[in-house]
Specification:
The protein has 424 residues and is α+β, with helices and mostly antiparallel strands. It folds into two domains: 97 residues, Serine-tRNA synthetase, tRNA binding domain (Helix Hairpins); 304 residues, Bira Bifunctional Protein, Domain 2 (BirA Bifunctional Protein, domain 2), CATH 3.30.930.10. It is 39% helix and 20% strand. A hairpin with a 5-residue loop joins strand 6 and strand 7. 36% of the residues are buried. The model has no long low-confidence stretch (mean pLDDT 94).
Length: 424
């Protein structure tokens, strides 16, 4: 959510921020709605002050035995006009907030201009893509004899689902546990088991509602299935005033995630890349405003460490304005190399949201003993998407006979198993 004072002072800054995202200017309409609200607030305050003054005058006139009927009549008329003004104020305020809720987070200056992923900027890469002595297979071909079943999943649930069984089911669990152990044991994140079903105000707080309702799954009882644990974890501080000495707060969770993938028809329909249901280890940080830039770098490094230990080549991209998400002011994408596809694919997005989500959630902090509060800054990132990590492991560690070696870091989580093969 935007700061209205900032908008009033710098409307051109908002329109410039929207232009960098490829969106139309909105400042003028927002300012018109804001002015209408403030004008009505002034009118209402004046009417209420007049009513209060008249009420005092009525008491004095009646105490002196005078005729207060004209004053009483005026108070009656004011009462009706005040009620009408209050209703109009509610409507105008709702209209302002409705538009305000659809405006994305302004980007920080070092986010590059651009329209889509082609304009993202390479920051660094790690690891050399392996040179194969055979044509590497994609994960769905490799996975079929190992326990990856899309046909049974389609029978159960339709497209964009998968059934993993045997060693692959264990590998998914092993990867998630490995990720959690690294993030909690070495990087200071607190593990959380959050709700997977949430209410409207929770999705509003992190920015999924109202703009992206079509991308979510909703139950018939008005719960929403989370598309990411970011939703639940970030809202742990909603409506709270934190002592700054408590910060930073760092949370992690391994959860199923549910995405309708609206607008993704025809994209990545083959295999496990884009699923309606998948699991992810999420990272969320709640920090002081002055610490969020450094925390962004730290969080990204925490996610990168998982790929390094699994010996999977990757690169880090700084997203351009047109490719940066609604709630983020700056995002790094970590992309892992998939030899079966012959290209890098996103496996984590680490975003600094500044105070954008905190304003929507009313999450604040203050120095102990002081009256003034300020909004915290929130950050989120995948540490990592478990299914895509499994995909990357299969494709990068595949052998000519269709078996898959397991990197040393994951072997203890697989009971010492060193290789996946169809014959066990």
């Amino acid at each position: 959510m935007l700061d209205l004072k900032w908008l009033r002072d710098q409307p051109e800054a908002l329109d410039d921020a929207l232009r960098r995202r490829g969106l139309p200017a909105t400042a003028a309409e927002l300012l018109d709605r804001d002015a209408a609200v403030r004008a009505l607030q002034t009118e209402l305050q004046q009417a209420q002050a007049r009513r209060n003054a008249l009420s005092k005058a009525i008491g004095k006139v009646q105490a002196q035995g005078g005729d207060a009927a004209p004053l009483i009549a005026e108070v009656g008329a004011l009462k009706a006009s005040i009620q009408a003004a209050e209703e109009a104020l509610r409507e105008r305020t709702a209209a302002l907030h409705e538009l305000l809720a659809t405006v994305p987070n302004p980007l920080v200056p070092d986010v590059p201009d651009g329209t889509d992923e082609r304009d993202n900027v390479l920051l660094r890469s790690w690891g050399e893509p392996r040179r194969f002595e055979f044509v590497p297979k994609e994960h769905d071909v490799l996975g079929a004899p190992l326990g990856m079943d899309f046909e049974r999943a389609a029978y159960l649930s339709g497209a964009r689902f998968v059934v993993l069984s045997g060693a692959l089911a264990r590998l998914e669990r092993a990867l998630a546990t490995f990720m959690l152990d690294v993030q909690t044991g070495e990087h200071g994140y607190t593990e959380v088991a959050p709700p997977l079903l949430v209410r409207d105000h929770v999705l509003f707080g992190t920015g999924q509602l109202p703009k992206f309702a079509e991308e979510q799954f909703r139950t018939t009882t008005d719960y929403w299935l989370i598309a990411t644990a970011e939703v639940s974890l970030t809202n742990l501080v909603a409506g709270v005033i934190l002592d700054e000495a408590q910060l930073p707060l760092r949370y992690t969770a391994w959860t199923p995630c549910f995405r309708a993938e609206a607008g993704a028809a025809g994209k990545d329909t083959k295999g496990m890349i884009r699923q309606h249901q998948f699991s992810k280890v999420e990272l969320v940080s709640i920090v002081r405003p002055e610490d969020s830039d450094a925390e962004h770098e730290r969080m990204t490094a925490c996610a990168e460490e998982i790929l390094r230990r699994l010996e999977l080549p990757y690169r880090v991209m700084l997203l351009c304005g047109g490719d940066t998400g609604f709630a983020a002011r700056k995002t790094y994408d970590i992309e892992v190399w998939l030899p079966g596809q012959g290209r890098y694919r996103e496996i984590s997005s680490c975003s600094n949201c500044g105070d954008f989500q905190a304003r929507r959630m009313r999450a604040r902090c203050r120095v102990k003993g002081e009256r003034e509060t300020r909004f915290v800054h929130t950050l989120n990132g995948s540490g990592l998407a478990v299914g895509r990590t499994l995909i990357a492991l299969l494709e990068n560690w595949q052998q000519a006979d269709g078996s898959v070696l397991l990197p040393r870091a994951i072997q203890p989580y697989m009971g010492g198993l060193e290789r996946l093969s169809a014959d066990g």
